[in-house]
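Table S4 entry, Tetratricopeptide repeat protein.
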Amino acid sequence: MKIRVLTTGALIFSFFLSAQTPIQNNSKIDSLISVCLNSRRNPVDFKANALKLLEASKLENNTKGVLAANQFLSRIALGQMQYQDAYNYCREAIKLAKDSNNDGAYHAITNTLAQVHFQTKYYDSALYYFRGNLSFLKNEARQKFQYYQTQRNIGNIFLRENKLDSAQYYLQAALKGFNAINNKMFSAQTYNMLAEVDLIKKNYNAALTKASKSLELTKAINFRPNLASTYNLLGRIYDEKGNEDQAESYYNLAEQTKMRPPKGAATDASWTTKEKSIAEHKNKRINRLTTEKAFYQSNLFMAIVILIGLGVIVFFLYKKNKISKHEVAQLQEQLDAFNVAYEKLQRKSQENTPETHRLELPSGKLIVLEEVVYLKSDAHYVEIYLEETEAPLVERISLSKLLKLLPENAFIRTQKSYAVNIHKIKIINSTQLMMQNGIWVKLSPNYKAALKERLHAN
């Protein structure tokens, strides 16, 4: 937290001192401003001195002092995550900067306001102010660091919004600038952000290269606040690459190097505020996940899943039944047309040659083909069912061999163990055939297509 205050505070103070033009000369107010700047390493003293400056400046109606006090207090509130206070101080400072035509102070405070919007996840507003500052800083040769820092902030917003190409563009530009001015601390942090982009894009090798570079810089300058996050990032990269042992090793290092509360009463309040905020966010997340898990394990959720599953099954059964009915209707129409054509052929045949067709079986028995209704296989025997007879004629032969002896255009297999005389079929449904003698014979899906083709061909 101490380093965070120094890092974030350095930007506004260097910006403030380099850009601000004198408005009013007052030795008491100038002295208080100096006291504030000298105490900025201690958040508690810094805030107390900034409040004294604000009170004294208001009593003397000193715009310069009021503006400086509001700038200081906005940065302190931002560092302590008191975002509403930070916002109020920013708005007051912006008004004073505009009234006094102090462009440097205006852009310094809008930079703080942008960070307030960023921390509270109002990313569109944050982006608006950061981009405004970027245009101002581009022509300020003395403020290169602030320019690169603003590029980094814009890249961070795009990263949060998962706009990865835009994030990569601004972060790479910021990294180039930080490297040019040899700022290893911000280079290390920016390498981490770029590694996050590559990790989301699943460019694991590129992510590993950048995270390793960040770790190298972090160790070189002993930048402890960045150490645990870099180890954690490396752990996640190796996790995605499938190297569980390496990932676990980095996760352990992240836990070991996690920052502990700093010693000393001066920073206790700030650190406590931060830790409390982190704990609250973790508890909210745990509660949300627990609630979601409880719902997914509840009877209501199971009932919903079952109802949806039943709905899907009913829909597919209905669709299948509809298709089956349509197919059966077509088969019945083809059968009726086939029988009409066959009867005509029979009448014409009887006029010319009234004799019937007979077949001598291997056993020597004679059968009239026109009287055969259906055949049923029973082990090594075939039962031949004829018209006007209840008991079948039994022949020692396989169904396949017998079918080779019968007219191909009249007899067809309907199941592994059944074959029928096509001319004796009266009704067709999706799974059975009713023969002329009233017997239902099974129709297998594997043979349905062949029957349909035979009827259509005839």
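Strands lie at 358-360, 366-368, 372-378, 381-386, 393-396, 411-415, 418-421, 425-428, 432-435, 440-442.
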